[in-house]
Amino acid sequence: MADGWPPAGEIKAIFDTTGRTRAIARGLLEDHDRALAEVHSALAPLREEKARGELAGIPVTRLKDVTEGRLRLGGLEDAGYTTVLDVLEAGPYDLQQVPGVGVQTERQITAAARQVAAAVAESVAVRIDADARDARGTALVTALHRLVAAGPGLPGAVETARALDRDLGTALTDAAPARGRLRRLFAGAGRRDLARVALAGLAEAAADRDAPRLVADAALDLARRPADAAAAWIDFELQSPAYYALLAELTGAAPDRARAEGFLPHEIAARVNAQPLDAAHRRVTLRGYQEFGARFALAQRRVILGDEMGLGKTVQAIAALAHLRAEGAGHFLVACPASVLINWTREIARHSDLKPYKAHGPGRAEALAAWRKAGGVAVTTIDGLHALSAESVAMLVVDEAHYVKNPVTRRAKAVASWADKAERVLFLTGTPMENHVAEFRSLVTMLQPELRLDAEDAVAGAQAFRRAVGPAYLRRNQEDVLTELPELLHTDEWEEFSAADLAAYSTAVQAGNFMAMRRAAYAEPARSAKLERLKEIVAEAAEGGRKVVVFSYFKDVLARVGEAVPRATGPIAGDVAAAKRQELVDAFTAADGHAVLLAQIQAGGIGLNLQAASVVVLCEPQVKPALESQAVARAHRMGQVRTVRVHRLLAADSVDERMLALLAGKEAVFDAYARRSDVADAAPEAVDLSDADLARRIVSDEQRRLAAPP
User: Fold this and answer.
1) Which residues are in the Helicase ATP-binding domain (predicted)?
2) Nearest Cα to Cα of residue 520 among 702, 344, 336
3) How confident is the model over 68-112, as pLDDT tens digits?
4) Nearest 5°: phi and psi at 543?
5) Phi (first) and psi of residue 474, to 5 degrees
6) N or C: which terminus of the chain has fewer CB atoms within 10 Å of its end residue's CB?
7) What's the CA gap between 486 and 482, in Å, rounded?
8) Which residues, in sequence order, are CB contacts of 540 under 8 Å at separation 6+?
9) How far, in Å, CA of 654 to CA of 484, rounded?
C-alpha cells in the first residue's frame, strides 16, 4: 500500500473473481441466445403454414383495398386466381399470361399481394395443438420448455447478466494498469486515475454475492439437458399460460396495448408501467397483461381489479404481495368467501414463497398468532373479518369484493375498518361494474373517496367508463388479452365441508358406501359448500352472458343443481333418447346469451357438440380420468370461439382428495403415452386408471382417518 495501491495478491483476487463472474454472465447470455434461436427455428415453419392458411382465405379482390381500387382484377379471377395466396405462388410469367395483365400491372398486383402477406405474417398467432403433437409442434414445445423450465426469474437474471457483462467488461479494461507495477509505471497519470476508480468498482462488484449467484443459478437451470418430448408436452398441458406468454413475447403477438392496459388514461398507464415489479418471491411466470395488473395494484395503491373470470386475478394479487415482500413488507391479509378460502391458501403456496395462514375455523387464534410473529399472508373469510381486530397490513386483498357493495352490512363495515388501516388495498371482482354504478360507487368510496363517479360515465359505454374510473379500476376481458384463443383454463375449486356435508360424508364412510361418499357434498342443498360455489360460478358466467354446462356422474346431484340454478335445462342422461339429447343441445345453443345445461358425464361427455358453452363445471372428480377429458372436449373443440374455463369442484379432506392423490402419479404417464394413442381414443376404458380396488382402498383409508383420534 506504499504507493496507494492494494497488495498484488488482493488485486489479483479482485480480477479473478470479477473475471469469473463475467464469464458466467457471458455464458448465460450465449445459452439464452441459443435457446431463443431454437424457438425461432421451430416457430418459423408453423408461422409460415399459418400465414399461408390465412392468405388462402383472403379473396384476391382485397388487393383493391391496398391500391385504393386502382387495380383491375376481373381477369385474374377468370383465370382461376381467387386468393392472395394464388397470386403469391404464381410467378411473373404466369400472371402476365392473364388477358389484360401486362408487366406494369403484374408488378402492382405482386407488390400488393406481398404487402398483404407482410401484414398477415406480422399479425399471425400460432396455437400449439396438444392433440396433434406432430413433429413441428413437438419441436416448438421442446424448445420453449427449456426457457419455461428455467423459471420465471430467467428474464431478470438475463438482464442482470447483460449488465454485469457490460459493466465488468468496461471496468476490467479500464483497470488493466492495476495488474502490475510496470503497467502502472508506463501508464500516464490520467490512465492511472481511471484504473484506481475502475479497480474500486471491481472490488465492490467482487464483494457482491447476490447478482453473481442469481446469474449462476439461472445459468445452471438453462444449461440442463432438454426434456424429452413426452415430458415437455406434459409440462405444456400443466402450465400452458407460461408457454403462451413466452410465445407472445417472442413473436410480438402480445395483445393490443390499449386493451391489455384496460383503456386507462395515458398518464395512469405511464405511471403503472414505470412501477417496478420484483419477482424474487414469485414462482409463476406472468403474462404481460398480468404484470400490468400487479403493477397497477402497486402504483395506484387502493384499487379494484375487475378482470373477467379466468384471467388470473389471484395470480396478479400474489405477484403484488410478492413484490411488497421483496421491499421488506411482512404482513398481508386476504379476505375471501369461504368457498374459495382453500384455493387462496394453495395458490399462495404454489405461486410464491410467502407463507399462508388459514385464519378461519377452530385453529384461527393459533394461525393469527403465528402470522403476527413470523409474517406472511393471513387468509380469512369476508364474513369472519368482523371478529378480527383491524390492524395495519402492507396490503389487504378482498376477493369477490362485490359481496361488500352494501356499506351498511356488517361485512362491509369490517372491510372498511381494515381498509382504513392498510397501506394498500386490492379489491378483486369478476362482475362487470359497468352495469352496477351504485355498487361500484360504494366500493370506490372505501378506496378512493375523492374519486367522483356519475351515472352518465357508465351510459357512455364500457371504454368510457373505464377511462373515467381509471385511477381506481382496471378490467380486461378474455378477448382483449388472450391472443391464442380459444384456450383451455382449468381451476380446481377446493371447498371445505359444511357441517351438513360432513355429517352426510361421515355416515357414508361408516357405511362403506363409495358412491354416497362421492356425492355427500350435495346431500343437503341448502347447506352445501360445493353447491354454493357452483351458484357463484354460474352467476358470474351469467354476468358475462356465457353459457355453462354442468357435468356430474350422478342424476340426483344434477337434480339438486337444477333446483338451485336459474335457467338450467336437462339433464342429458343415459335414459334420454339420442334425439331428445340433441334437442336439448340445440335449444341450449340457440338460447340468447346465458344458459345452463345439465348432463350426466357418461352421457353428455360423448358424441355431443357443446361448443356454445365456454364454462364447464365438474361437480366431482371422476374415477376414470378419460371421462373428464371427453366431457371437456365437448366444449373445447373446433368451432369454439371463446376461452373455455373448467371448474372442478373438490372437497378437502375427503374422497375427492384421496382419488386425486392415488390417480395423480399414473395420470401423467397416461397422458403422455396412452391418451393420444389410437387404442386409447377408441376404448379409453382399456387403459384407464380405475378399478374396483381404488374404491375399496379409498373407503378403507377414509374409515381409518375418521376413526383416528384428533
Assistant:
1) 294-450
2) 702
3) 666 777 788 888 888 989 989 998 888 988 888 888 888 888 888
4) -60, -35
5) -130, 125
6) C
7) 8
8) 309, 430, 431
9) 36
Cell of 280: 424474487
Q: Which of the listed residues 423, 448, 481 is the one where a domain comes to its end?
A: 481
Phi, psi of 657, rounded to the nearest 5 degrees: -65, -40
Cell 372491510, located at residue: 415
Residue 178: phi and psi, rounded to 5, are -70, -10
Same domain? 216 vs 317: no
- H/E segment holding residue 497: none
Report the domain count for the chain. 3
CA distance 392 to 64: 65
Q: What is the largest CA-CA distance in the chain?
A: 100
CA distance 535 to 652: 19
- Asked whether 351 and 414 are in contact (CB, 8 A), the reply is no
Q: Do strands 395-398 and 644-651 pair parallel, antiparallel, or not at all (unpaired)?
A: unpaired
Rounded Cα gap, residues 443 and 596, in angstroms? 30
- How far is it, in rounded angstroms, from Cα 345 to Cα 397? 13
Residue 646 DSSP label: E
Helix (H, G, I), strand (E, B) or coil at 398: strand
Segment 594-604, tens digit of pLDDT: 999 999 998 86
**Which residue type occupies 571?**
P
Is the previous residue joined to 571 through a cis bond, with omega within 30 degrees of 0? Answer: yes
Residue recorded with cell 362491509: 412
Alpha-carbon gap, residue 561 to 554, rounded angstroms: 11
Residue with cell 449467484: 213
**φ, ψ for residue 71, nearest 5 deg:** -85, 145
Question: Range of 365's domain?
Answer: 254-481
Specify whether 104 is located in the same domain as 72.
yes
**429 close to 314: Cβ distance less than 8 angstroms:** no
Same domain, 259 and 162: no
Q: Would you call 134 helix, strand, or coil by DSSP?
A: coil
